[in-house]
Structure formats: C-alpha cells, structure tokens
Amino acid sequence: MLINPPLDFELKDVDDEHPYLKDRGFHAQTIRHFGLGVCSRGLMKGRVVIPLHDAIGRLVGYAGRVVDDTTISDDNPRYRLPGRREREGRIIEFKKSLLLYNQHRLKQPLNDIIVVEGFTSVWWLTQWGYSSVVALFGSDCSEEQARLIVHATAPDGRVWIFPDTDAAGEKGAMVMLARISPHRWTR
C-alpha cells in the first residue's frame, strides 16, 4: 500500500476566474497562489479544486469544495478528499492526518506559525499578509500533524492556534495544545 504518494498527473483547464472565489472576496493573486479553480470534468466536476502537497511540495492529491451549498448531501459532501484507490495493482490511500495544508510553502524553522482548521482560513490569512499559516484538514490534530508543527517551528518559536468557534474546534484546540505545548510555546 502507498500512502500519499505523488500524483502522476496535474489537473488542467480549471477555471480560476469562476465567480465562486471572487464573490467571497478572494483576490486573483490569492487564487493563483494556491492554484485554485473550478474543475469542469471528472470526479471534481463543479467543485473548487484545491491542490494538496506534502511537506516537500510534491502534489499528492486534490480536495474539492462544492460551489453551491444547496447541493450538499450525504452523497455530495461539502468537501471531497481523495479516497482509497487501486492503480496498476497497487493500493493508494490518502491520509490527511499525515499532512498540513500549505506546509510546503513555509520557510522553516519558523518563529511563529498559525494553525487553523480549514483551507479557506489559510487563504484569508495569507491574503491579509500572514504567510506562516497551515491547516489541519479539520478540527482534529493527529500526533503526526503535531510533530510536523513542532518540527516546522524554531525551538524558541511560537504556535498560534486558531480553531473554529464551535465545540469540535474547542476540543481539537485542547488536544493540539496538549500535543504541542510540551515542545513549543503555544497560544
């Protein structure tokens, strides 16, 4: 089984001028910086595609977000992440718990790192001038993600935790604090 291997393709012809992102206030520069756009075919058709990279910058998958929230259902979730698949007789699996979204863009070690739950928070904070931001792919911080955060931060650096303001975010922040605070200053 291969976990988060590099993709052997890149999505082409995504619409980076689709109104979904611009109507939400994202600048064209932010959209291009993150490689965002709406896909016109395949599994991600009609979704904003979000390139996912490992810590060294290899493209390992795409997430997709619906552009019309009224279509969200059990069969059509808000976000679609890569699943388990077979290719050339090998099982390939995507595990978000082993990655931090946007980590590959950071100049390490960092004096400060901001940790958020989701992709859009990374885009907003980057657009507002905060360049050292990563996302967990949700409210849960795995032990591997905590290790990646500690490793990305200088020994005297600071980790700023900004969870969503719901019960899951609060619980996730407490777990993250417990995993990171023995190693780095957290707030």
Can you put this structure into words, describing what you see?
This is DNA primase. Residues 112-176 form the Toprim domain. Pfam families: Toprim_4 (PF13662). The chain has 187 residues and is of the alpha/beta class. It folds into two domains: 2-94; 103-186, Dna Topoisomerase Vi A Subunit, Chain: A, domain 2, CATH 3.40.1360. The chain contains five helices and eleven strands. α3 (119-127) links the parallel β8 (110-116) and β9. The protein starts with a strand and ends with a strand.
From the structure above, extract its key features.
187 residues, alpha/beta, Dna Topoisomerase Vi A Subunit, Chain: A, domain 2, 2 domains, four-stranded antiparallel sheet, four-stranded parallel sheet, 11 strands
